[in-house]
Amino acid sequence: MSTLKRRKGSETKRVSNSEPPIDKEHEKREKERDEKQKKSKQEGDENKKRNLKKWSCVDSCCWFIGFICSIWWFLLFLYNAMPASFPQYVTEAITGPLPDPPGVKLHKEGLKAKHPVVFVPGIVTGGLELWEGHQCAEGLFRKRLWGGTFGEVYKRPLCWVEHMSLDNETGLDPSGVRIRPVSGLVAADYFAAGYFVWAVLIANLARIGYEEKNMYMAAYDWRISFQNTEVRDQTLSRIKSNIELMVATSGGRKVVVMPHSMGVLYFLHFMKWVEAPAPMGGGGGSDWCAKHIKAVMNIGGPFLGVPKAVTGLFSAEAKDIAVARAMAPGVLDMDVFGFQTFQHVMRMTRTWDSTMSMVPKGGDTIWGGLDWSPEEDYKCNKKIKSNDSQTVSQNGKGSADDAKCANYGRIISFGKDVAEVHSSKIEMVDFRGAVKGSNLANMTCRDVWTEYHDMGVGGINAIADYKVYTAGSILDLLHFVAPKTMKRGGAHFSYGIADNLDDQKYEHYKYWSNPLETKLPNAPNMEIFSLYGVGIPTERAYVYKLSPAAGCSIPFQIDTSADGGLGCTCLKDGVFSVDGDETVPVLSAGFMSAKGWRGKTRFNPSGIRTYIREYNHAPPANFLEGRGTQSGAHVDIMGNFALIEDIIRVAAGSTGDDLGGDRVYSDIFKWSEKIKLQL
Amino acid sequence: MASILRFRKLCYLEPVKCSPLGFESFETPKIDKKESFEIPKVDEKNESVVSAVEEVLEKPTKKKRQSKEWRCTDYCCWIIGYLCTTWWLLLFLYHSLPANLPGLKVPEPPGARLNREGLTALHPVVLVPGIVTGGLELWEGRPCAEGLFRRRLWGGSFTEIFKRPLCWLEHLSLHNETGLDPPGIRVRAVPGLVAADYFAPGYFVWAVLIENLARIGYEEKNIYMAAYDWRLSFQNTENRDHALSKLKSKIELLYVTNGYKKVVVVPHSMGVIYFLHFLKWVESPPPMGGGGGSGWCSKHIKAVMNIGPAFLGVPKTVSSMLSAEAKDIAFIRFYKSILLVHGVSSFILFCRTVAPGLLDSKYFRLQTLEHIMRVSRTWDSIISLMPKGGETIWGNLDWSPEEEHDCDSAKKRYLQPSLNENSSNNTDGKRGFQVKERMKYGRIISFGKAASDIPSSQLSTLGSKEFMRASTSTNSHASCGEVWTEYDEMSRESIQKVVENKAYTARTLIDLLRFVAPKMMQRAEAHFSHGIAEILDDPKYAHYKYWSNPLETKLPEAPDMEIYCLYGVGIPTERSYVYKLSPSDRCNSIPFQIDTSADGSDGSCLKGGVHFVDGDESVPVLSAGFMCAKGWRGRTRFNPSGIATYIREYRHKPPANLLEGRGVESGAHVDIMGNAALIEDILRVAAGATGAELGGDRIYSDIIKMSERIDIRL
């Protein structure tokens, strides 16, 4: 408007000043009009340009997303349209023809399903689902909280932790929450999508004719103590009834049981439970096992516990016993919970009684004292060589001088030097009487609660001053740092060695899962197999340090700077490792079969035959093999072809002798001999 | 898909953003980042191949050509991207939505209400699914089914139908002679609650009931889903899978582990007769039975709550056997254009949600219906649903128990709240006069509309003897591709014979089926029987083939047990059919089809070639309610120990709006599983109530009157 006025003004001025001819004026106007037109044209052009620019700014994002999406869909389509045998074809093109899966091979040999099989999954691998929850878990009814995609960990982490925790006093459900194990084969065939646990074994068994009616997955809630699974869910009764049913419907053929990892202990508990009289036990009578069980094939069984369990309880650092390792590191280390992930995890896992079933059992007798351990001559670097050439005897030559750097008996030591010097040079200050100091930082730590906050500085220092802990004193340590957990645990588990197995007290269920405090059932025709992987360095002892003092964190952590150097390669990142399957040391997995139960001993009065079958670890040759068909790792061994073949043969009727008896790569027999245990 | 994508990106592209906070700021920052990645790249390369967008930014000189290219290909990308983004945004909003919108009032589930009333889990519950609803998975298959090990072939998403239809059919078929697995194929029932909680994603069957049970404290340890392979005959589920033994052992276990509380059994649809079979099996001596002894049922079972029971069979079965079409399919055939609205798989229930259109499209290239027929005829279990009791129950040529049913007034009647009283005697009589002819429901199949109306004296019927004599000249032309149905073995003349007979009642139907499907009937008749027992103590009734027929067995000796018949009413349900010959195309090998042009006048029950009566859309009231209303009521010869029976009917009311889904007051055969009143009844009984405490019978239909008309010796 204003410009118009101005122009008008100038025009009138011009008119008043001099009177130019009208045609000139006209020309001028035309010119102006032309210019205007030009201008508008230009403006239009500019508009166009701007339009295009706008396009690029916002819409190119859309374009990009669209582009990605289209490609993604296209690939997905190709993937779906791909024939199922394509990956196999590619693999074969690269690596040469693959061996038949054992199921196919044995099917061709003419093996057929004979004995019903029972799977007993271990800790962590079984799925858990929600049956009743708090407000925040709305819409998750019968959805998996554990296993599957773990989607809820991301979506509502605090809610998830709240639901997964158990009651701190009773070790059962907190009020208003019911989490129950998923039942059926789906409970533990895959842990997460694509991460098999039992699936490969099931598929191979199916090849020789197994199906739902003669396979049974004894899924149980692995968070609660073994006896509580019966008290709360009647799981043991269910297993009993199912085994009876399968034996009856398959014409009296006994079952072959395959427990894995903690399931081994669970099934040990079951065998005692089922023959015990009714109020506490299953009332099956003293010949139940003899009548119903042909063989127990323990896969990677931590009979005598796992050192990892200690650190798990102590500082939540072993993350989790088995599979979660493959799955969780990323999850746990991230600050999913916004603050103090570890503390949350620790608080949750400490309510799980079952973790205590895996604390090392047998004390110093089994695991070694301050200056002695059964594995002391084990040499980490030579191990690899000797495994390759399969000359087991070579190991014996390991000279004693540099082997001394690893005092495996000291499961926890504070500081690297303490771990190495001779015991006479260690000053130990008893922590047991130490006063737990007043709380240093309870209020500032928000709602994260671990029992460390009750300890105070005094208590923490006392622990560090004791310097070295062996399997025996570790129990005291745990009692000191986690009194509530251990109190609950102590009612359900025991870690000692029985002097007199006929003592009345051993009829209590808390001893049933400890092989050193129970007798095997009276079933002379039964067979016990210990199947486990060897050839992977496995955590055995730890070097700890005090964390930099921050009020809210866990006061101890593994000293990852402690390395053994060239002379002592067994120490790495603060962890002494021995031979094992990455989780369970050979000693724990093999000792009972190698010595404790071999022949007629007091732990095995009826002389049940035992066999050791070791599987030497060979990492997958290439990426296409996935987790490998020769793996010896704790969970991946479930896909090991040799192991599957052994299992199928036994399920189809073979005995341990038909398989070829023991198959040993490690020094388990030598180490077992060193253990002085009254048999 | 989208969510997976999003998840992937979240995790792999932007690990830092994985915190819950990252979700909100997810879309835009990521895109910006991408941009900043892309642009410098273009600068560096400076080559024209890179995406046009950036070039517009960088080189305005080439603008025109570029913008044209833009329109051509990238526009699509843009649209897709736009849609994706919006989709994600909506998805995100949807997820961040509180579960209960304040404006939207979700009716409180009955479980929650009863929980507040103080009901808690008492008796363990056993669920017995019906036909079709249970999932089936593959355990061993042919090469074409590679990679499907332990995947669901039936139930779930049904993707394999589309991917490899012929392979799918091959695996679902059973052996034609034995009725068991074909060699090299093992398809087994999915076990556990997942077997039938949802049939397809989002299509609940038992899920709602389970959820409500959970609210009053039930969980895996006191609920058991007795999944079985519903394709097999009942006894074969025991022979092959030990399903009955398993059920027995589970019930015993539930009984013991739950403090010696008897179980409440909730069978649905065909599960009802399966469980009837079980009741007899479990008490019979071992070689054939379960050897539980005569006190087993009274010791272990508190109540059997039959939902939508098909005690006396379902007429729908007949049509599906004869021509692989039930009402739904016939309509589809007729209206080929609305293929996608109603799909079907002919059998009995509600596959129509899943396999839409596909059956009739030439998806299999040749004769979908014939394929279906061939497969379904290998399934023995379907025979268990054939109408039982013959003409005594289902009526003969001139008479049927439902003949006074008036479709129009029935509808009206259900709209009025108080109904029991209004059908007093005089209105009844009047109706009889008003309706010129009573519907002849007894003629379950009639050829031609005329044949369904005219009095029987004018019908030309052949005796069944004569009928069987009609020679089956088996020299059929082998030119019909590989599709094989037994019709190919029938000559044109014998088909003609079938049609000449005009009308079939429940009794002659069996003869008809024997004629058109001899192999199947031969197999099936070894497993099922459809008659009425004269003398129940006859030793022949100890054979298992009679166990699933309530008219040929005695209920167990269990005076404390209760039997409920819970079913929906108020939906027109198929009762009899008008058939015609198909246009004679030799290879279109099903020679009969429902005459969809046969329509009655207004207010008639004949529609699209099908006569309707009251029922729950699949099972007529008569079949569902008769045993509870009369056959077992009091102490009869079928119920010697006088087990108490209760009828609980649920009037159908369609969902008021779209948000309600399948409704909480539905009476339809499967949707009734979400009916709040039914769930409440079940919960109350499970928590300890008796039938009398529930209020005894609850009847909306004419079932009592109908039953009275049936002349059966009790």
Automatic annotation (TrEMBL), chain A:
The keyword Cytoplasm does not apply. The keyword rRNA-binding does not apply. GO terms for molecular function: O-acyltransferase activity; phospholipid:diacylglycerol acyltransferase activity. Keywords: Acyltransferase, Membrane, Transferase, Transmembrane, Transmembrane helix. Its EC number is 2.3.1.158. Its main location: membrane. Residues 1-46 are annotated as: Disordered. It holds the Pfam family LCAT. Residues 9-46 have a biased composition (Basic and acidic residues). It is an enzyme of class 2 (transferase). It is a single-pass membrane protein. It is found in: Membrane. GO terms for biological process: triglyceride biosynthetic process. The chain crosses the membrane at residues 57-79. It catalyses: a glycerophospholipid + a 1,2-diacyl-sn-glycerol = a monoacylglycerophospholipid + a triacyl-sn-glycerol. GO terms for cellular component: membrane. Belongs to the AB hydrolase superfamily. Lipase family. This is phospholipid:diacylglycerol acyltransferase. It comes from Nyssa sinensis.
UniProtKB/TrEMBL annotation, chain B:
Pfam families: LCAT. One of its GO terms (biological process) is lipid metabolic process. One of its GO terms (molecular function) is O-acyltransferase activity. SUPFAM superfamilies: alpha/beta-Hydrolases (SSF53474). Keywords: Membrane, Transmembrane, Transmembrane helix. The chain crosses the membrane at residues 72-94. InterPro entries: AB_hydrolase_fold, LACT/PDAT_acylTrfase. It comes from the Eukaryota. PANTHER family: LECITHIN-CHOLESTEROL ACYLTRANSFERASE-RELATED (PTHR11440). This is Phospholipid:diacylglycerol acyltransferase 2. It comes from Nyssa sinensis.
